[in-house]
Amino acid sequence: MNMCMKLLPLALAAAAALTTSAAAQNTIKVGELNSYKVAPAFLDPYKRGIDLAIEEINAAGGVLGKKLEFVIRDDGANPGDAVRVAEGLVTREGTNLIAGTFLSNVGLAVTEFAGKKQVFFLAAEPLTDKITWQNGNKFTYRLRSSTYMQVAMLMPDIVAAKKKRWALVYPNFEYGQSAVENFKAMLKKQQPDAEIVTEQAPPLGKVDAGTIAQAIDDAKPDAIFNVLFGPDLSKFVREGNTRDIFKNRFVASLLSGEPEYLDPLKDEAPVGWVVTGYPWYAINTPDHKKFLDAYQKKFNDYPRLGSVVGYVTVKSMAAGITKAGSTDTAKVVAAFSGLKVDSPFGPFTYRGSDHQATMGAYVGKLAMKDGKPIMVDFKYVDGAAVLPPDDEVKKLRPAD
């Protein structure tokens, strides 16, 4: 009897191990890391988008007949921490497929990690062009429209405004620097007589909005190009409204039509700004309606742009693994080249030349309706329409 009692825990442990092993064999795990604690306005909805997509995929039979699972970790919004988290996902969780990141400098660090360790990485949100161009590698793809793409989407309105004196406002880290670099290059090419009269580049999260607003007003620009987002944007808009610096000035602004950044402005939202964003309340396509209905049913809330990005990140990973017929790194890398994915914005493709997705963005103007800020006069700009051709990409990107 005593011997049986002694053997029972060993038997139970062995059974548990077998059960765990069997479950692992029936599960495809993807590691996901992001700055959840630092950027909840975007990443809480992003996580919801992930949950919705996983639920849909597993309800339909999973991927390659297996359950899909995302193992989610916080990257601390720090490049060094992110690399350690990515390493942990690979070594401890045993996945060779990772996705995510939010800040561009963090995304670049994980891009480098993926290249060195030969791990597949889908950069979901970081926007700097370096991820797919200057610092690109064969193991990294990117989902969202890059800074180059989003600036190019705004350029027709910027050129049409015919303003000569520009003030620039941007967060002084990789994303902001990349956006402004693209703006300067495109403006110089399309409107050579334009000039930059002031540049305001505060550290991310440390905007002295009053000083910035005053400096812009003192420079007497005809127009403003803004790249601030989140709480920095709210502070800048509030001070700008107080000091009337937006009055009679054309303003073009990246990301400011995204609900996570627009909605907190409430009745302070600057009417007339030309922005990229996500007018979820007025997109009347079948693909978007299906997503919107499912999202609202599950969460009893409206989606943000982050919701779409999280949802499509999962859909992309599932599509790539399915096309590869395997989770083998080399096969998934090859499968993503030319991969077609359905999304709430319609179908798009991951380009083989630079590993950039052609999923586009909406461009429109800010307005007020029933006391709430919205986008009006908007249109969807396909990413394929603004990306450079393959021969130009070869000059920008190192050989794989």
Number of DSSP strands? 14
Radius of gyration: 23 Å
Percent helix range: 40-55%
What structural class do you assign from the helix and strand content? alpha/beta
Q: Give the CA-CA distance, first to last residue.
A: 65 Å
> H/E order of the elements?
HEHEHEHEEHEHEHEHEHEHHHEEEEH
* Mean of residue pLDDT values: 94
How would you sum up the major sheet?
7 strands, mixed
Low-pLDDT stretches: 11-23
Tally of individual helices? 13
β-sheet strand percentage: 15-25%
User: What would the principal axes of the Cα set say about the shape?
Assistant: globular
Numbering strands along the chain, what is their spatial order in the largest sheet?
7-6-8-9-10-13-14
Could you characterize the architecture of this molecule?
Helices cover 45% and strands 19% of the residues. Strand 8, helix 8 and strand 9 (250-257) form a beta-alpha-beta unit. It has a seven-stranded mixed sheet. A five-stranded parallel sheet has the order 2-1-3-4-5, with helices on both faces. The longest helix has 24 residues, at 2-25. With 400 residues, it is α/β, with parallel strands linked by helices. Helix 2 crosses helix 11 and helix 3 (79-91) runs parallel beside helix 4.
Helix/strand layout:
Blueprint: H1 2-25, E1 27-34, H2 40-59, E2 67-74, H3 79-91, E3 97-100, H4 104-117, E4 120-123, E5 140-142, H5 147-161, E6 165-169, H6 174-190, E7 195-200, H7 209-219, E8 223-226, H8 230-242, E9 250-257, H9 259-262, E10 274-277, H10 286-299, H11 305-324, H12 329-336, E11 340-341, E12 348-349, E13 361-369, E14 372-381, H13 390-396
Parallel strand pairs: 1-2, 1-3, 3-4, 4-5, 6-7, 6-8, 8-9, 9-10
Antiparallel strand pairs: 10-13, 11-12, 13-14
Helix pairs in contact: 2-11, 3-4, 5-6, 7-8, 11-12
